[in-house]
């Protein structure tokens, strides 16, 4: 049983929303719904470019900050200034890190079924392990494989192959659960794994059969 991390076990969107509001209020003003939505659009755009190997992690962060400043009508900044603003945002983001309240129930269900666990996550090695430590899951879910550690990111089939190799299992023996239908379900199945879509907001594809609204609903998929 392998989990995605961000927005599956770890509440990235909630943490980022709270952190963005705190950070923006400190140098601009209230975070409106429009600005918050724009911040997540910048995240998806530039983190996607990093995932595809087009930019460095530092550069995608600078582009996110720069894109926001442009929306705010602020002048462009030098890279060091962008890095400093990112550092301020990250502190606000990290201060609100928390896991979902159904994460514990999911681990209990998996343990009761006698299954091993693991995590496959896109993201920097140090940050993802830091998240697990802060939310109290270090050593409780493993192995933990990151895009940075593997040298490739979901949906690259090599990421799933690396996961299966680390587990010593054939892909068909691995069940993967995650919130992103394209990365965590479609791509996992293309790599030969079984997959369940965690659709917390009920916005996933209507034709998806293996869908759960909460990790508490995993039991039916563990047999």
Automatic annotation (TrEMBL):
Keywords recorded for this protein, A-Z: Hydrolase
Keyword Hydrolase: yes
GO molecular function: hydrolase activity
One Pfam family from the record: Hydrolase
Keyword Hydrolase carried by entry: yes
InterPro entries from the UniProt entry: HAD-like_sf, HAD-SF_hydro_IA, HAD_sf, S-2-haloacid_dehalogenase
PANTHER family per the UniProt record, alphabetical: HALOACID DEHALOGENASE, TYPE II (AFU_ORTHOLOGUE AFUA_2G07750)-RELATED, HYDROLASE, HALOACID DELAHOGENASE-RELATED
Stated name of the protein: HAD family hydrolase
């Amino acid at each position: 049983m392998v989990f995605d991390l961000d927005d599956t076990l770890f509440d990235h969107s909630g943490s980022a929303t709270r952190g963005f509001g705190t950070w923006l209020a400190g140098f601009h003003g209230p975070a409106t719904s429009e600005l918050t939505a724009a911040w997540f659009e910048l995240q998806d755009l530039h983190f996607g470019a990093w995932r595809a190997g087009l930019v460095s992690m530092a550069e995608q962060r600078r582009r996110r900050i720069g894109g926001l400043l442009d929306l705010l009508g602020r002048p462009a900044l030098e890279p060091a200034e962008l890095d400093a603003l990112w550092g301020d945002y990250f502190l606000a983001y990290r201060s609100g890190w928390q896991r979902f309240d159904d994460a514990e129930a999911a681990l209990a269900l998996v343990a009761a079924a006698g299954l091993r666990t693991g995590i496959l996550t896109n993201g920097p090695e140090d940050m993802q392990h830091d998240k697990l430590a802060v939310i109290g899951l270090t050593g409780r879910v493993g192995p933990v494989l990151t895009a940075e550690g593997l040298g490739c990111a979901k949906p690259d089939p090599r990421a799933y192959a690396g996961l299966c190799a680390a587990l010593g299992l054939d892909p068909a023996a691995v069940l993967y659960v995650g919130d992103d239908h394209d990365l965590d379900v479609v791509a996992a199945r293309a790599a030969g794994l079984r997959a369940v879509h965690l659709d917390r907001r009920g916005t996933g594809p209507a034709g998806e059969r293996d869908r759960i609204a909460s990790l508490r609903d995993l039991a039916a998929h563990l047999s």
